[in-house]
Amino acid sequence: MPHTHPHVTLGVSGGIAGYKSCILARRLVERGVAVDVVLTRAAGEFVRPLLFEGLTGRPVLGSLWERTPALAHLDLAKQSDLVIVAPATAHLLARATMGLADDLLTTILVARTGLVLAAPAMNDVMYAHPATQANVAALGARGWTFVGPERGALAEGPSELPGRMSEPEAIVAAALHLLAPPGPLKGKKVLITAGPTREHLDPVRVITNRSSGRMGFALAEAAHARGADVTLITGPTELALPAGVRAQRVETTSDMERAVHVSGADVDVLIMAAAPADFRPTTPAATKRPRANGHLTLELESTSDILSTFSRTQRRVIVVGFALETGGDAVARAQEKLNSKSLDLVVLNDALEPGAGFEVTTNRVTIVRKHGAPLALPLASKRDVAERILDEVESVLS
Asked: CB pairs under 8 A, 24+ apart, for 26-32?
């Protein structure tokens, strides 16, 4: 079964969460993955094979005896880059743990020696049962990777305990992380900052900026998809946290500085895409100042420069800074920042250029490098820009 794109076997067992597996299959296809779907007999009662065939463009396999090549279980077990089981019901996990091979899916799992990713989905009490927990532990010890389950609404109502199958986007992120081909970033520890910070004038008013965090979030998603072990430190933002990465939310520049120093102790790459506030009130008010008090004069002091205070350990750390300018000889200033702070790369963009900078989904940047001429990139989506930035990071790592 030769293939040029990543090849995934998606095993679907019998649970109401099977509807999410339809979305999962489509999302994988959209990312260029060839997907073969294997349904258990129970899964076919929830979602019909024809739907998966329409979503993947490939025939769906089910029974060992009907429409199935004689050695399909061996072909799929050996030649798939990844086997995903979603949903992985309590019954499926128990059969896999016991090594049963009583249908096509479990036969594939018994014959499988490569990567398996499972997304458990069941009632929260069933997931908490000692037998299920023992099965998850046993399969994990055999090399299975698990994503979820999550807390939230189940078929029978809301729950505060794990049981709900992870969303398709989270499963896709985990799959792409496992499928990442060998490269300079694979297995590296990458720390990324994103978003603005807030400095309080009083308990309700703050000094901040217009950073949305989109650039840093795009970098975190792209680095995770390349196989990196990603930690994201983000200031206040409305964005959903990227799936598959460790994330920490912070408020002030001092909070971000402390988080970077703790999480950055043993990283391979630091990418400072955040826009920390440069100034804070010298003396924040303990209570809200009424407008009726009239004119207000603020005294501000500088916040810490996180890049300047970041302590590199004896190991080599690649450090990428960002420079947001509003005109003039911006490249020269970015070059000065690169030299004065001993950075490897500086990503420069213009806050006033339409389609770039804050509160937009696109960006136009120039990457200033320690070695080589500055690289000016065209206007593109922030995810595409993130990929180009990571290409440069990998060049430095190589």
From this structure: 26/55, 26/56, 27/168, 27/169, 27/172, 28/172, 28/175, 29/55, 29/56, 29/57, 31/172, 31/176, 32/5, 32/6
Model confidence, pTM? 0.85
Other beta carbons within 10 angstroms of residue 163's beta carbon come to 25
Parse the chain into domains and list their residue ranges.
7-179, 189-287+297-397
Question: What is the C-alpha to C-alpha distance for residues 272 and 32, in angstroms, rounded to an integer?
Answer: 30
Set 209, 293, 349, 363: catalytic member = 209
Sign of CA dihedral 165, 170, 172, 173: negative
| Residue found by looking up tokens 């800074």 in the block | 321
Respond yes or no: is residue 209 known to be catalytic: yes
Query: What is d(CA 322, CA 105) in angstroms, rounded to the nearest whole number?
Result: 48
Residues of the chain where predicted confidence (pLDDT) is lower than 50: 1-3, 314
151: left (phi over 0), alpha (psi -120 to 50) or beta: beta
- What's the confidence (pLDDT) of residue 68? 57
Topology agreement, domain 7-179 and domain 189-287+297-397: yes
Strands 116-120 and 82-88: parallel
7-179 belongs to which CATH class?
A: alpha beta
**How far is the first Cα of the chain from the last one, in angstroms, to the nearest whole number?**
33
Length of the chain in residues, anyone? 398
pLDDT at residue 87 in the model: 95
Distances (CA, A) of 28 to 37, 103, 116, 174, 367: 12, 25, 16, 11, 31
CATH 3.40.50.10300 applies to domain 189-287+297-397? yes
**Residue written as tokens 């258990």?**
40
162: helix, coil or strand?
Answer: coil
> β-pairing, 269-272 with 246-249?
unpaired
